[in-house]
Amino acid sequence: MSMQIQTSPRSVIEEVSYRREGIHVSLIVNRRQRTARLVDFLAGNFPLKQQRLDELARREGIARIYTFVEKEESLGWAKVGFAREGSIPGYYKRSDAYLMGRVLSDPPLVDEDGAPLTPPADTAAAEKVLVQARKLVAEITAVKGLKIEVLNDLQATAQGIAPARNRKTAAWFDERFLRSGDRLHVVGRGRTTSQVVTAELQEPFGNAYVQIPMVPTKTDEARVLSGAMHGLHEALKARDIGCTFAMTPADSPLLGAVFLGAGYRRTGVLSKHLAPGERRADAMLWVRRTAGDGDSA
Predict the structure, then answer these.
(1) Do 71 and 173 fall within a single domain?
(2) Which band of pLDDT confidence, cut at 50, 70 and 90, is reported for residue 102?
(3) 53, 139: one domain
(4) What is the mean pLDDT of residues 134-141?
């Protein structure tokens, strides 16, 4: 039987489905970052799914696959080379999600028994960045007199908020996390700079994925971004969103300070999750809950 793959027209974000030999999986592929989020795995045993996912990854040029699962499912994925890299307390409203990730290499990385492995993230370097970020939090208090505006996709496009397509950033306007769902774009405008934060809402689960289109490199930029983050969380209050999360470059103390100042906790470090240039880079997983608490990875 030939491989059956269903795709939408080629774009930065594309859903790819694989159905063959009793296996049914769907991936949301980010072609710019060369990552794929596994969103459906309704049929098939774990070893066979892992083999077919590797086959599909090679075909699609994917360097990393990751997925969110509940605790009981995480053990099966761990046995086929996926590492538990972080957690999102309250992702499913009443239960937590575990982020399982796998970096593909050629030749494949395996243990002494031949089982697939994922190279670990550089947690020591990420910890140093986190220590620096904690020291910066007090310096990036939101600017007084900051103007905040909440926009939808059409308004953001009309105002030119969407970044130029020939620029590579940590999170692009067209790099959606979900298949569908509302998005909010919150713009903070200071006297000398403007900053944007975007959230994709997954309202059935009561969560939202936060993106930062441009990583701040100056203290003033981080201050304005802090104000925009505050505006975002105010806007989300009316939408019954209890959990927000983000995956950001692991090498930015200023960006870390913005998230810490906004009440986020780092709950994981993701191996080779981003592709800012020729070499892949680790990412930090950040989580903020409006009520309750959960485990930290």
Answers:
(1) no
(2) very high
(3) no
(4) 93
